Amino acid sequence: MNTRFHLAFPVKDLDQTKIFYLNILGCSLGRESLKWVDFNLFGHQIVAHLSPEDCGSINRNQVDGDKIPARHFGVILNWDIWENLIKSIKEKDIVFYIKPKIRFKNKKGEQGTFFILDPSENVLEFKSFKNDSMVFER
């Protein structure tokens, strides 16, 4: 059995959310109702719940020169998939919230990372480690 995570998050509009997650990120669609939609995000179940009042501003923390939103989610991808996702996002003229970069260069935890916003301003981070053992390196 593969271990997968499940994440539920608020959105302002389900139709805009579906367009973004299906067409921009390439998710597949799962079950849906008038109040929520399931997506397959690289093998993980994420659920967009219609809850506009829960979408709002978030605090940011300084990390390696960037102000990183305290509330964000995403996935760790293989390096080639991460690079292909960057190309795809650029081709679709999506603006990066934080542009692709190498964080913690030549240090423990070195990683490629970038951030984008969905239509409800949920912050998504996509990262990759050339050496997978670095994911939890202290």
Question: Would you kindly provide a written description of the structure presented here, covering whatever features stand out?
Answer:
- The protein has 138 residues and is of the alpha+beta class.
- The protein is built from two helices and ten strands; from the N terminus they run E-H-E-E-E-E-E-E-H-E-E-E.
- It has two domains: 1-52, 2,3-Dihydroxybiphenyl 1,2-Dioxygenase, domain 1, CATH 3.10.180.10; 59-138, 2,3-Dihydroxybiphenyl 1,2-Dioxygenase, domain 1 (Roll), CATH 3.10.180.
- It has helices at residues 14-24, 79-91; strands at residues 6-11, 28-32, 36-41, 44-50, 60-63, 66-69, 73-76, 98-103, 111-117, 123-128.
- Strands 1-4-3-2 form a four-stranded mixed beta sheet, with helices on one face. Strands 7-10-9-8 form a four-stranded mixed beta sheet, with helices on one face. Strands 5-6 form a two-stranded antiparallel sheet.
- The radius of gyration is 15 Å and the shape is globular.
- The two termini are 28 Å apart.
- The relative contact order is 0.19.
Q: What structural class do helix, strand and pairing data support?
A: alpha+beta
- Cα(first) to Cα(last) distance is 28 Å
Q: What is the CATH-assigned architecture of the largest domain?
A: Roll
The CATH topology assignment of the largest domain is 2,3-Dihydroxybiphenyl 1,2-Dioxygenase, domain 1
How many beta-strand elements?
10
Poorly predicted regions: none
Question: Biggest sheet: strands, sense, closure?
Answer: 4 strands, mixed
Mean pLDDT: 93
- What order do the helices and strands follow? EHEEEEEEHEEE
